[in-house]
Amino acid sequence: MDKIDVDTSKVLLARYADKETGQFEPAKVRHAFAALKIPIMKSELDAFIENSLIKGKNGISPTDIIEQAERRFKKEQVRKELLVRAFQEYDTEDDGEIDSDLLVYILTEIGSDTTCREDAEEQARSCLNSDTGRCSYVKLVNKWSADELIEEEAKSDDQF
Fold first, then answer.
1. Alpha-carbon torsion, ordered 114, 117, 123, 128, to 10 deg
2. Does 88 or 12 have the greater pLDDT score?
3. CATH number 1.10.238.10 given to 6-74
4. Which residues pair with 98 in a beta bridge?
5. What strands, in cross-sheet order, belong to the sheet with 134-136?
6. Do residues 120 and 107 make contact, with C-beta atoms less than 8 angstroms apart?
7. CATH number of this structure's domain 91-148, picked from the four choices 1.10.287, 1.10.510, 1.25.60, 1.10.238
8. DSSP 8-class letter at 98
9. CA Rg value for the chain
10. φ, ψ (nearest 5 deg) of residue 127
11. Phi and psi at residue 97, in whole multiples of 5°?
């Protein structure tokens, strides 16, 4: 997927909006991003909600959410491309692995969801190949995919 489909997004978002105003209560905004399958950090979501409410509205419009989702989607695409390039550049043994300290540095520098060093170190440990002591790109991507699935399941459980 190269971009967010605005028409489909509006349909997906409609179930979370206030029926009378079409606006979103702050508590429902996370569900809106989950419906669009856009991962967003709590701090980023909180800032988005705060900035949207400052505009003097009683809620957050679907247009605001879609615009933020598009920005977040583009950011995720760039982050993944940078990670692929970093592995290609620093994988000196051409085995899909890089040094864990290097991965921690990359994760904190590319603006990933693991911008704090402790989170980046945890991510690096989770994809460590016990045979080589290096971090595997495949394990990292699989972990991210598994984390996204778990997060989606938790969000869908919250909806019902």
1. 150
2. 88
3. yes
4. 135
5. 97-98, 134-136, 128-129
6. yes
7. 1.10.238
8. E
9. 18
10. -115, 20
11. -130, 150
Tens-place pLDDT, residues 83-115: 888 889 999 899 999 999 998 888 887 765 555
Domain boundaries, given as residue ranges, for the chain? 6-74, 91-148
pLDDT given at position 160? 44
Mean pLDDT (whole number) for 20-43: 81
Residue labelled with tokens 């940078």? 82
Cα gap 80→150, rounded to integer Å: 20
d(CA 12, CA 15): 7
3-state secondary structure of 134: strand
Same fold, 6-74 and 91-148: yes
